[in-house]
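debug: dumping io for the single-chain case to check the tokenizer round-trip. Nothing else runs in this session.
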Amino acid sequence: MTQNDLDESVAYLLERGFREPEIGIVLGTGLGKLADDIRNAVVAYYSHIPYFPLATVEFHSGKLIFGELEGKKIVVMQGRFHLYEGYDLIGVTYPIRVMHRLGIKKLLISNAGGAVNPEFKKGEIMLIEDHINLQGDSPLAFKNVSDFGKRFVDMSNPYDTSMRDILVKIAQEKDIVLRKGVYASVVGPQLETRAEYRYLKIIGADAVGMSTVPEVIVANHLQLPVVAVSVLTDECDPDNLAPIDVNDILATAARAEPDMILLFKELIKRLPA
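debug: decoded output
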């Protein structure tokens, strides 16, 4: 990745009207319907954007959408990238750098995750307060990283406190169950064994998934305030573990999606212009 790569990607999007977005949003597995509410939408398919990776997961759309939501200009990733698709973490996080270069000042991330904390239930939403990177790599581990920001990035508080506080207040007002916890990010695409779920619980994870942490690391590298939520699509009880059907995960995400959309729309409305 070079500065010229980013310049070409941004130039392509600017030509198509992606001008001065205030907020970037990453929509996770089964959570793409927020895009339906965008006004004056302009779409750029990943396959057309220079240097963009291509989404290979069948239920990820693969398009960048610019428009208006709750009075703010936003740019939305409908479909994200993962290590398990064969990309490296520089590629996985490339769109975050592009959105930042376009001008976003805040980043909102959603994902579908498994509940490791036995008190958390399928269909609930968890506000991520901290994370554990178990992907065995870093999106900052490349030679010319200093061209894009500091090499050594502080991660003592990676998720923006003010946006988290607003989401908690919204959840209380709208009577939405919003758990708080630690998200562990693994490579995938296989789901975890009983022993791995026990391990995750021991090390302090409340939920587990295959995304988000790389994007959050890059957001912190760019000094871009970020907040993230997990829609909990299954309960990972190692003592009562049943085979997981991906279709069931998608169905659970779809049922919880209206609450996630409400949280994000209200947050966008309340963020200062």
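debug: round-trip ok. The chain has a mean pLDDT of 93.
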